Amino acid sequence: MATRRITQETFDAVVKENIDEFEMGPDEALNEAVQQFESQGVDLSNIVKEVPTAATDETKDEQTHEVLQALEALQSSASSSSAGGHLERFTEQCKKGFAQRHLAAQKDAYPTILSCCERAGEDREALLAALSALAALTDGQPDLLDAAGRDFLLGVLGAWREDAVVTCACARAVRHFCLKHERNRQDLAKAGVLGLLTDAVARLGGNVDVVREACAALRVMTFDDDVRVPFGLAHDHAKMIVEHGGLKVLMEAARAHPNNTGVLSELCGTLSRLAVRNEFCQDIVELGGLKFMMTLLADSLDHQELVKQVLGALRAIAGNDDVKDAIVKAGGTELIVMAMNRHMSNPQVCEQGCAAMSVLALRKPNNCQVIMDTGGALAALQAMKAHPGDANVQRQSCMLLRNLVARTESFSQPILEMGAEALIRRVLAAHRDCGDVGRAALRDLGCPVELRELWTGKKGSLTN
Description:
27 helices, 1% strand
């Protein structure tokens, strides 16, 4: 069923009617309008849920929303010395929420802000104000980018590459334009943005904000999150970043910030997105990445977000069979189990921990033995108990259990004695999308499993 939407003008008219016709106060009129539309199934996510106000006493008959007042003031003084103040006011309004940004975009905010960006020239303060406004406006609205905007961002990254603050603002805008927008990613990558962002980390790696923003932008370039395209070039973009020296640059940046958990989390998250080829996984190890991750995990077990990212990075580089063995030999399984037990209440840590051990166990009976000896199977079952409603945790746990017994049948009985069968059957009942891994785990554990054919109503869609 299609989602019902209304325009801002329709919503504002109903609020005004509640005030004028039904003599409601502003807050009551607003709440009544919200309840009325939501009861009709209208999506109000793009609606500014505020009562319009007058910009000045002289214009009290012309009421509008504050974000539009800020935009109108900017449009009327874009080339004057007061533009900076209006840009800051507009930026703050855009940060209030997506609805404000959406409304501003409908009133030609993008060409107005881009014009301010282009007029800034070599005026650093004006450029920063305009870039901040651009990044704020485009958060969640990547479709706004055009060729002029793309050329402007690339030009700034090249011309201001020694300026950390300008580079941060520009990288943030690039990230907003590329999130959930495959065409923008491909166009910017083709134009050279990957090299510019990698160079920014290399040149300004000592600056915390640059590392955070550039890594976040690089990571988004490796996403495949645009539902409007059948497939993207995430793998190709990761390969291009590596070819620009990305792995070495990221490792050097990590060593430059040994005590900053936020930066290290960003770097581990980005490294995990680049480990898309067998040789890249090996390169990370040869650059000291595995030793670095082991030390980081051991020293930072209390930092939940960092633990999650390190586990994700270990999972990624374990795609290489030789690296699997290296991780296990370095004591990785013990650390993964410790991390899961320490943060058992966090579903993402549990998911990443189970996923990492599942990869380590794949086609590796010796590794399976180590995982069993260190309590990996028990940790997975505990995670299933702790997060019965999280499909990702349940799926990764089932995959781990299956990989543990696929080539070592002797592990089946100990795992069953831990209560695995009941937990897996609960997964099958609660999470239909986990049916394949759940049934496979039961089968390989030696449990009776019903392989039913399900008709989904589409031609050729029989599934077991």
